[in-house]
Amino acid sequence: MRETIAPWQVSISPTARGKPMPQTTAKPTITQLPQVHLPRNAGMPLDLDWVARAQANTSAIERRAKTLPGRRTVKKDYQAAWLLKAVTCIDLTTLSGDDTAGRVRRLCAKARQPVRADILERLGVEGITTGAVCVYHDMIEPARAALAGSAIPVAAVSTGFPAGLSPFHLRVAEIEESVKAGAREIDIVISRRHVLTQNWQALYDEMSAFRAACGDAHVKAILATGELGSLRNVARASLICMMAGADFIKTSTGKESVNATLPVSLVMIRAIRDYCDATGFHVGYKPAGGISKAKDAVTYLALIKEELGDRWLQPDLFRFGASSLLGDIERQLEHHVTGAYSASYRHPLG
Amino acid sequence: MTVKEHFDSMDYGPAPESTTEAMAWLEGHKARFGHFIDGAFTAPGKGFETKNPASGKTLAKISQARQKDVDAAVKAARRAQPKWAALSGFERAKYLYALARALQKHARLFAVLETLDNGKPIRESRDIDIPLAQRHFYYHAGMAQLMASELPDRAPIGVCGQIIPWNFPLLMLAWKIAPALATGNTVVLKPAEYTSLTALLFAEICARIGLPKGVVNIVTGDGAVGEWIVEAEVDKVAFTGSTEVGKRIRAATAGSGKSLTLELGGKSPYIVFDDADIDSAVEGLVDTIWFNQGQVCCAGSRLLVHEGVAEVFHRKLKARMDKIRIGDPLDKCIDVGAVVDPVQLETITRMVDGNSEGETYKAATPVPEGCFYPPTLITGLSTSSALMQEEIFGPVLVSTTFRTPAEAVAVANNSRYGLAATLWTENLNLALDVAPKLAAGVVWVNATNLFDAAAGFGGVRESGFGREGGWEGLAAYTKPKAKPRALKAVTTAFTGVHALHDPIDRTAKLYIGGKQARPDGGYTQTIYGPRGDALGEVGLGNRKDIRNAVEAARGAKGWSATTGHLRAQILYYIAENLSVRADEFAARLKAMTGKPGRKEVDAALETLFTCAAWADKYDGRIHDVPIRGVALAMNAPVGVIGALCPDRAPLKGLIEVMAPAIAMGNRTVLVASEPFPLAATDFYQVLETSDVPGGVVNIVTGSHAELAPHLAAHNDVDALWSFSSTPLAGPIESASCGNLKRTHIAPAPGPVRDMLGHATEITNIWIPYGEG
After folding, report:
1. Given this model, what pLDDT does residue B468 score?
2. What is the 3-state secondary structure (H, E, C) of B592-647?
3. Which CATH number fits domain B20-264: 3.40.50.300, 3.40.605.10, 3.90.226.10, 3.90.1150.10?
4. B510-625+635-765 has which fold?
């Protein structure tokens, strides 16, 4: 698989960790947000020593995750602002066997106007859309058409999603087809067996090939953390995928029995932080599956703010993979502006 | 500020907890409080204001107790005690259960009041202090229920005077009152001057649930009130607070016969090995030194990092510190609240400003005006730096590095304190090897500041003695039902004029470090039998002999690391060799005391067997704490035990002291029976032939009154027992203050099972686990 390694990888000289890479610009400050594009993760040579050093103490990580909601909270207008931020970070998703063009068009309409206009008006905020719309390959075309004229990208799940066990060349070809069809973001699934057998080189090579196939499209690496067996494996797989050029690392397909959790998120974003410290590259994070309550979304944002910093609280570096989360946020926002608890039928279906 | 601006800044914004109910409660009392004595509040008297340290505003006026208030409280407790103790365990359990329930029902009021009065973040009082206090009452409701069946040989101590600090006002109250009440004691408790309010709310609840009057009495005031409680007619004093005050209480109660437990200061090590989950270890520090503004006796305030990862660790730690939010403790989004009082703030500031070593990093986080101190890290300190040794009791972490596990243990134990310790490693072998080697009553592995009613908490060395929580905590509030049978006192040895008539001169020496040693002073004393015949001469030990014996005992540390099986083998071997010479010892005893000695030799042999039996059976426990993990309550030897052996029954008494001590892995310095020392000096020949390693048992002969103060003041003796008929409790207990050695003074050694308790310290090692 070596031949699939793209030039951007071999051109990177090994760097001492702790020092930002020379080609990286200084960390952007709040005032520049979010217009300035960060340099894309160029990856780095596989560093197995680093991978082997990675540790993740399950109990300690669970304690941090469990106490966080008690340590951080936002109220009133701040809460409304945070919920709106969450909306802008949602990859509004439909990944069902019965998806049709019509279904996808309705979803895209919701992506363009995720919160009722009168509510947004009362909040004094405009231009709120979701972060992306996420679909299977065959739905890219209707989604692209429905989103035409907006800045909302179409993301496609790929590489034999969700199991990732189709022939390797077909998985690579699937990426290429999706990019050709207009997907600007590709959510790939890694081969869990490479993690479970600790075959890090194979994982690195696979991820490198996927990244190369994506070209200019951004690639999100789905680790399927619910199937990796341990948080240590999650930490190591996160590092490998970033070394191999992932733009985002993502927890789950939504099809595993355990999807995004706070402990898993903590491990992955700490890996992102270490990777940024070592290389200067900002890799994004996407928890997916199981986040359906507005309160959970706020907790996730607080976790990101605490562990990664404010720069990651933008849709270019953070996404929720979620389908029912938006509905709960809409109800909370209506409650915020009216003072009365809301009902789901008062908000347009997605 | 608009939603749009918040959307762009993504700041947290204020999230204040309401104080309405708490203020209404204060107003309901007209913001003035008396004492709670004999089931009712006294009229508010002269006193002082209690303030909210975050705002400086006065919350209420608290009465300063006078001597007569303390007397009335003690009298009420005394009156109530027999009836309370006579209630069935079930009856007492019902009251404790009601208290637990009441704490739960009023949880938010307690939490807000605690934060108002103390300045700790509402998150901590809401999520930690108050739930742990509830848990303590629930747990001890169960202990009341089980006492009769599970502790059939234990009785309540009586009236307990309890003095608690300001850092965890309600939680420390719970730790003191719940076990006392469960086991049939009544209490007079004094909350700290700064933080009396939750104790007063608790008092109100005691009345509301119908707790019999006099069972709980609460008097408020400053240190003078504490002194009166210590001096009052109480049977026990329990104190949590500074080591300095703890030593004063030890001195004040010396010789009084009052039972004493002290939970004092610490400078607890926080050890990070290079294979640790570094991010989690960094986060742990937030839960220890930046918990409760660092005003925690067991705070991991001394960071020890493996040299190879120190740079990375400190970098990550500083980044984490910058994320800490400091401010209004009533804000639900605050990590560090107000220091309890401007006086404490001044102490912290002075200590940090007085340090010129290493590098000081203060968190880059906004610090409000007033009683606030920023999270601070001082790196690059050596063990000799004052801040590495002294407790700061504020949000200040000091740091140094180590190279090897052995060095980590050495640096960790290089402290006069021994309360808690934390260690981080992913290596099970390393964790389980290091944890028991740390001089600490509590060790947390890959976690920190875990507390629960089911696990004992308390320290060693100058961090105090006694445990709170768990089965072991009940020892502090109970005593053996059976009074130890006092041996008839011997005041003087026999005298005589007859010459020695052994054919060859025999010199009884001291036995130090496995060798027979001449007394340093070069004096000997003739020992006579009841008819005045000279039986032999023994050396008159002096302070230098004590010094040498303690040094030998300290050096024999290998003994504490041996297996129980090996110690049992050696105790059996001692019995075997003593048995061979049973007739000779019996004859010696008869010659010295005039009474047949065979029974005493047989009793000594049986005690040796009993202790050999226990050597490998005095198991620890695994406490059922509410985490996925274990809290191992491990019995560890106390260390070097000095003992003044009983004067009567000179062989049996010696064995009753020595055997349980060495069975548990202690090394001993035994001062033989003063009037009848020759059985002890004969006995060292038995030791020599029984494979007892040199230094494990050292025998000194001489005057108890002269030797006891030297043993008591020796800072390398961990415990001192006295069963001497010379009254030594006063001098021993007051001289023991130097290193706060444990003392056990009784007319005679107790049953072996009790002696094993005195011969061990319980260390609770918390090991959360889990993978996946």
Report:
1. 97
2. HHCCCCHHHHHHHHHHHHHHHHHHCCCCCEEECCCCCEEEEEEEEECCEEEEECCC
3. 3.40.605.10
4. Aldehyde Dehydrogenase; Chain A, domain 1 (3.40.605)
Model confidence at B408: pLDDT above 70: yes
pLDDT of A36: 61
Look at chain B and count its residues. Answer: 772
Per-residue pLDDT band at B496 (split at 50, 70, 90)? confident
Indicate the pLDDT class of residue B342, thresholds 50, 70 and 90: very high
Spans in chain A with pLDDT lower than 70: 1-36
Cβ pair A82:B770 closer than 8 A: no
Dist. CA B502–CA B763, nearest whole Å: 52
- Answer whether B306's CB lies under 8 Å from B402's CB: yes
Residue of B nearest to A228 (CA): B772
| Contact pairs from chain A to chain B, CB under 8 Å | 109
- pLDDT above 70 (res B1): yes
> What pLDDT sits at residue B501?
65
pLDDT for res A18: 40
Pick the CATH number of A48-339 from 3.40.50.150, 3.30.565.10, 3.30.1330.40, 3.20.20.70: 3.20.20.70
For chain A, give the number of residues.
350
Nearest Cα to A282, choosing from A307, A306, A255, A246? Answer: A246
What are the residue boundaries of the structural domains of chain A, listed by start? 48-339
Give the mean pLDDT of B483-501.
72
The active-site residue out of B17, B193, B263, B761 is B263
CA-to-CA separations, B113 to B103, B122, B329, in angstroms, rounded: 13, 9, 11
CA distance A74 to chain B (A): 6
- CA dist., res. B15 & res. A337, Å (int): 18
Q: Quote the pLDDT of residue A3.
A: 39
Q: Where in the sequence of chain B do the CATH 3.40.605.10 domains occur?
A: 20-264, 510-625+635-765
Q: Which fold has domain B269-449?
A: Aldehyde Dehydrogenase; Chain A, domain 2 (3.40.309)
Residue B641, pLDDT > 90, answer yes
> Percent of chain B having pLDDT more than 90?
96
Q: What was the pLDDT predicted at B590?
A: 96
Task: Say yes or no for a CB contact (<8 Å) between A55 and B771.
Answer: no
Residue-averaged pLDDT of chain B? 96
How far apart CA A275 and CA A262 sit, in angstroms, is: 20
- Euclidean distance between CA atoms B501 and B529, whole angstroms: 13
Residues of A with CB under 8 A from a CB of B: 18, 30, 33, 55-64, 67, 70-78, 80-82, 84-85, 123-125, 229-232, 270, 301, 305-306, 310, 313
Would you call A71 and B315 a contact, using CB atoms and an 8 Å cutoff?
no
Question: What is each CA distance from B475 to B157, B180, B352, B455, in whole angstroms?
Answer: 10, 10, 39, 13
| Per-residue pLDDT reduced to its tens digit, B112-164 | 999 999 999 999 999 999 999 999 999 999 999 999 999 999 999 999 999 99
Tens digits of residue pLDDT in B527-552 = 999 999 999 999 999 999 999 999 99
C-alpha span between B86 and B90 (Å, rounded): 11
Q: Which of B318, B405, B308, B304 is nearest to B359 (CA)?
A: B318
Known catalytic residue: B297?
yes
Q: Strand A154-157 relative to strand A185-189: parallel, antiparallel, unpaired?
A: parallel
Contact B278 A85 (CB under 8 A): no
* Share of chain A residues as helix, strand and coil, in percent rounded to the nearest 5: 50, 10, 40
